[in-house]
Specification:
The complex is a heterotrimer of chains A (285), B (268) and C (337).
Chain A: E1 6-14, E2 20-29, E3 34-38, H1 45-52, E4 60-65, E5 68-69, H2 75-81, E6 82-85, H3 89-92, H4 98-108, H5 113-126, H6 142-154, E7 160-164, H7 172-184, E8 188-192, H8 196-202, E9 205-210, E10 213-219, H9 220-225, H10 227-232, H11 239-242, H12 249-254, H13 269-284
Parallel strand pairs in A: 3-8, 3-9, 6-7, 7-8
Antiparallel strand pairs in A: 1-2, 1-4, 4-5, 9-10
Chain B: H1 3-18, H2 23-26, H3 29-44, H4 59-67, H5 72-80, H6 82-90, H7 92-96, E1 100-104, E2 107-110, H8 111-137, H9 139-148, H10 153-182, H11 192-219, H12 236-254, H13 257-266
Helix pairs in contact in B: 1-8, 1-10, 3-8, 3-12, 4-8, 5-8, 6-8, 9-10, 10-11
Chain C: H1 10-34, H2 39-53, E1 58-59, E2 66-67, H3 72-79, H4 81-99, H5 107-131, H6 137-166, H7 173-205, H8 207-215, E3 218-221, H9 224-248, H10 251-261, H11 272-284, E4 307-308, H12 310-336
Antiparallel strand pairs in C: 1-2
Helix pairs in contact in C: 1-4, 1-5, 1-9, 2-4, 3-4, 3-5, 4-5, 5-6, 6-7, 7-8, 9-10
Classes of the chains: A alpha/beta (285), B mainly alpha (268), C mainly alpha (337).
Chain lengths: 285, 268, 337
């Protein structure tokens, strides 16, 4: 299927101040795939995403979205096809009410009022935020903001969803709800994140960026199993693959000797796993 | 609490009040804006020494407050903050205008005191009208109404953006100010040497935010023009509201009802 | 610094509102042509920044008191005059609505005083001239202080003119000027210093933000001459209003002048609208005679007449009580409905 593929070839980007954010990035994503782009801070993830809908021009290299190469002429069509959800929903929700925000894209497409109404209702329904429609964005919680931000993109009927750090700043329950939503989407999904547990659940394929280069591209499980690679790219295994810090022999060796009064000799393992996941969420804040 | 946090609280509170459901909330925003303007013009057109004649005008904010089921104490506190300012500007009047023009029993009242009090009452009335208008209409709706009444689109969009990001930036500014305060070891004031970098940082972050917002707009097909969603029809009820109140205001302006009432009560 | 509704006559307030609305319309038509579209969100967010910045105080050196920036000059330096005027206008609009800073009728005056002079006079004619294209730190500070002082002196003088022309305050013109100008000299220096402190920081961190507007033409494609013409027009407009109203009701301005020259005759307040309304009132009077002899000191009472204030006081209190009762009644009705 040549439709809805994202093809990036030898992409290079140099910022005006001389920083080479992307050196040589190539990959190809097929219709319906769910792909994670991971990497340490400053690896070039955000810069890469900003190329996918033409916000930043490539210094060299090409990008194809579906049948169109990215160029000035195809820009509008491509921006409709690629729905971009930004990390901070406050940047994405700039209109007075949720409805206005979700209607912003369709209004720019010049749709009729009835059609806009339909699109907004559908999009809000999709993210389980129908009851928020008349609220102003500053009265929403973090999780609500995130879901509405996704709705603002869904209302344009994109074929490809690009999400930058979708779970950043969410509490565990909001994170869970968002992941369940994303799991149901049939769109081609490109997700960048430091939340590798989410990546493990949502993305069958992972691309690892390091210093502006693709270091690995393959099945997520395989990549997360490769500890040398992860260490070289300043990454760590997702917590759910690290084993229980208390009972896994390797983990015990790494940790300082547990103080007897603090850790019961045969502690509740499940409890400890859950605790760890929780901790991780807080790091994201 | 820092002043900046209190401001944010005020905005949120007024905004939530505007989201309530009531007959006055449901009126077309244009009707409320127009009526408020008529109100203000009538109030400020009173002569310098008039005091009693202005009092019936308080019916308008009080009626909207009641019909909109707004918390009277909160609105009153917000209105009362104008008093110190009004007194400050009016306080010169008794200094320069010492002619007795009113006799209250044995008490002769200088024109200056009367006009000073008149300034305070005007300030209270106009402030009450503005704040009640916001509380029963909501700022975004007022902007849309003004645009429909002829305000340039660019300015309407500017007001809406400003309002949206006041919530984000007062929050951010509050965090910065708090962080400084907590590390200032009791030093109350901040010198210019720290003020510049502190606000400069905030400004740079603000600028970067604007760039990200613009990205988000472009990503959703923004081409330089903000499209408006048509909403609301100016119905018979709205016309009635504007005309009814305006007629009342003009009547209040023409006849000094408190005076008539007082003479009636005193049998003079 | 804010002008208040309570001090304004409808004529002055209306004229300034019209002048401000005209400037807003003009700037609104210029901004999309002059600026990149990305300044749409930038103007909004910078407005919010100024709003937040006005609430962060700094210690004023050597006085023990604290101050904050006004922001008009800062916005002009970052955005250029047109966009800056719209932005500061939007900030003042919100403050008038939410915090009753000044009020809605006074909004025209306030936007004009705090916006126009900073963005269209102080910035293009003072700051840019003094700062030059590639300003050094010291030049930048100097330019900002001089521009801040000039902008606020003009604004303060405008407040005096508007207040005097309105004739609500009894403060004589000369005394008012002597009060306002020195205070605003200090405020202007502080505005300049604080603006310079912020700009200097931004200039070090991201010089292109400050230099891009500096490199641009001062007022878009509009030459200084055209801008001065616009200013002259506004002045004529204001002057026209003042003289119109001085001729219909000479007391307002002449009273101020008389005060300055030492004449102490008590003036009648000046309200053309009041006279129109009074004329209508005569015609419509339901109780002929009553309104004319109303004890509440009607403004056209000849000076020297002493009225009985008792009916007004009693009637006023009863009116207030009635209004509050009506409110309580309406509320209970509304809640039941």
């Amino acid at each position: 299927m040549s439709h809805h593929i994202v093809e990036v070839k030898q992409l290079r980007h140099v910022y005006p101040d001389g920083t080479e954010a992307l050196r040589d990035v190539s990959f190809r994503i097929h219709h319906g795939e769910s792909v994670a782009i991971i990497g340490a801070n400053g690896a070039g993830k955000s810069t890469l995403l900003l190329h996918l809908n033409g916000y930043l021009p490539a210094t060299s290299g090409t990008i194809r979205i579906g049948d169109h190469p990215l160029s000035k002429e195809t820009l509008n069509e491509i921006r409709r096809t690629v729905g971009m959800v930004f990390q901070d929903p406050d940047d994405q929700l700039f209109m007075p009410t949720v409805f206005d925000d979700v209607a912003f894209g369709p209004l720019n497409q010049g749709l009729t009022p009835a059609l806009i109404e339909q699109r907004v209702t559908d999009a809000l329904e999709r993210v389980e935020a129908r009851e928020l429609r008349n609220k102003p964005p500053y009265h929403l919680s973090g999780g609500e903001k995130k879901r509405v931000a996704i709705a603002t993109v869904l209302s344009m009927l994109p074929e490809i969803l690009v999400l930058d750090e979708p779970t950043a700043g969410l509490d565990p329950r909001a994170r869970r709800q968002l992941m369940a939503l994303l799991q149901d989407f049939h769109h081609t999904r490109i997700i960048t994140s430091h939340d590798l547990d989410m990546v493990l659940e949502l993305c069958e394929r992972t691309i690892v960026l390091h210093q502006g280069m693709v270091m690995a591209d393959g099945p997520t499980l395989e990549i997360f199993g490769n500890e040398t690679l992860l260490a070289a790219c300043h990454l760590e295994k997702p917590f759910s693959m690290q084993g229980c810090p208390v009972c896994s022999p390797k983990a015990i060796r790494r940790l300082p000797k547990p103080q007897p009064p603090l850790v019961p000799p045969h502690g509740d393992r499940q409890h400890d796993h859950a605790h760890h996941l929780h901790d991780h969420d807080h790091h994201d804040h | 609490m820092l002043a900046i946090d209190g401001t944010l609280f005020d905005f949120k509170r007024l905004d939530l009040l505007a989201m309530r459901e009531s007959a006055v909330h449901r009126l077309d925003p244009r009707a409320k804006v127009l009526t408020t303007l008529v109100f203000i013009v009538c109030v400020v057109s009173f002569g310098r020494y008039e005091l009693a004649a202005m009092l019936p005008f308080c019916l308008f904010p009080i009626a909207l407050l009641a019909l909109g089921d707004l918390p009277a104490g909160y609105i009153a506190r917000k209105v009362l903050v104008v008093i110190p300012f009004a007194v400050m500007v009016g306080l010169f009047n008794p200094l320069f205008d010492r002619q007795v023009i009113l006799q209250l029993g044995p008490l002769g009242i200088w024109g200056g005191w009367l006009s000073c009090l008149s300034i305070v009452v005007r300030a209270l009335l106009t402030a009450a009208a503005a704040i009640v208008l916001v509380a029963v209409t909501g700022f975004p709706a007022i902007c849309v109404a003004l645009e429909q009444l002829g305000m340039p689109r660019v300015f309407a969009v500017q007001l809406l953006f400003l309002y949206r990001y006041i919530f984000v930036l007062t929050d951010e500014g509050g965090r910065v100010a708090r962080a400084r305060q907590l590390r200032s070891c009791g030093n109350k004031g901040m010198g210019l040497r720290h003020f510049g970098p502190l606000l400069g940082h905030l400004l740079l972050r603000t600028w970067e935010r604007a760039e990200r917002i613009h990205m988000a707009m472009l990503a959703r097909g923004f081409t330089g023009e903000m499209h408006a969603r048509r909403r609301g029809r100016f119905g018979a009820g709205d016309v009635l509201f504007v005309l009814g109140w305006s007629a009342l205001f003009v009547t209040f302006r023409l006849y000094n009802f408190p005076q008539l009432l007082g003479m009636l009560l005193l049998g003079s | 610094m804010h002008m208040a509704d309570a001090l304004l006559s409808p004529a002055v307030g209306g004229a300034m509102l019209a002048a401000t609305a005209g400037t807003i319309a003009w700037c609104s038509s210029r901004v999309p042509r002059d600026l990149d579209e990305y300044k749409v969100p930038l103007m909004g967010v910078l407005g919010a920044f100024v709003f937040a910045a006005q609430m962060i105080n700094f210690a004023i050196p050597g006085t023990g008191s604290s101050g904050h920036i006004g922001g008009g000059l800062l916005l002009a330096i970052l955005l250029g005059p047109h966009a800056a005027f719209l932005t500061i206008a939007s900030v003042l609009f919100i403050q008038a609505l939410f915090f009753a800073d000044g009020g809605l009728l006074a909004l025209g005056c306030n936007i004009f005083n705090l916006g126009f002079f900073q963005t269209f006079i102080a910035y293009p004619l003072i700051y840019r001239r003094l700062a030059g294209r590639q300003p050094r730190q010291s030049r930048l500070v100097l330019a900002a202080i001089v521009a801040g002082v000039v902008g606020l002196q003009l604004a303060a003088f405008a407040v005096v003119l508007e207040t005097t022309a309105s004739g609500i305050s009894a403060l004589p013109f000369k005394a008012f000027v002597l009060l306002m100008q020195p205070i605003h000299l200090a405020i202007g220096v502080i505005e300049g210093l604080a603006t310079a402190a912020i700009i200097a920081f931004v200039h070090r961190a991201r010089p292109e933000l400050v230099e891009s507007t500096l490199a641009g033409r001062p007022l878009g494609s509009l030459p200084i001459r055209g801008m001065l013409a616009a200013f002259a027009l506004a002045a004529v407009l204001l002057g026209g209003v003042v003289s119109w109203f001085a001729s219909t009701q000479p007391d307002g301005l002449e009273w101020a002048i008389a005060k300055v020259t030492g004449d102490t005759e008590l003036p009648a307040p000046a309200h053309p609208l009041h006279h129109t309304l009074a004329a209508i009132q005569e015609k419509l009077a339901i109780f002929p005679g009553d309104t004319g002899q109303s004890g509440s000191p009607a403004p056209d009472n000849p000076a020297g007449r002493i009225d009985n204030g008792l009916p007004g006081l009693i009637g006023g209190l009863v009116t207030l009580a009635t209004a509050v009762l009506t409110g309580l009644l309406l509320r209970s009705c509304a809640r039941r409905a």
